[in-house]
């Protein structure tokens, strides 16, 4: 007697992680821990998948949200005993690579961009500009560090020192994450934590990725030709289906600027 449910082909849950990482999940496709939590829960729990495939395309963003999302992926993987594969499309840089490192295996395209294991703070200075136009800046604070890095006054050594006290521990946490997840796959004599980026083949040679592969053929190679795929994606809010608001336009511009740092075209 044949029991149908015992002959079901394996199923791979495919979760798309695309966009800038931020607490608000900015833009039409931004990523945040709160926004991804129900999606990831469904992917790991529904129909007992043979594996989770993360389709990843992110230039990074919030280090805290990257850590929270990555930790959630690891908890669910260990809780349900389901391996995780990350498939990098165009870019997995900075926080995007943090998310990739939460997977058990990282696969990339030849032309994917990976890495940027560093922390950045950027802004503008307008002190000379407003001075030339006779504009007087009036700032009153309770607490001498409250106006740190005010763009309308000259930068000071104290400002830079305070900023470094913020950036360096975040960088150390990032490095600890990559060492913990990639471990012996990383070369002992190469500093990979300078913020440099690499293409897919280079990333494989450096231990930052496990191979050059695309999702469907790789999953068929690992789980058989009969493997099935169940896609999970973030839902677009109702109002966004009818057009972009002014805030959405700004978010889209900022997101494109984030991707532009890693954009190369043939």
TrEMBL record:
Name of a matching Pfam family: Peptidase_S49
Keyword Protease assigned: yes
InterPro entries according to UniProt: ClpP/crotonase-like_dom_sf, Peptidase_S49, S49_SppA_C
CDD domains, per the entry: S49_Sppa_N_C (cd07023)
Domain of life of the organism encoding this protein: Bacteria
Alphabetical keyword list: Hydrolase, Protease, Serine protease
Domain Peptidase S49: 79-213
Family classification: Belongs to the peptidase S49 family.
Protein name: S49 family peptidase
Organism: Paracoccus broussonetiae subsp. drimophilus
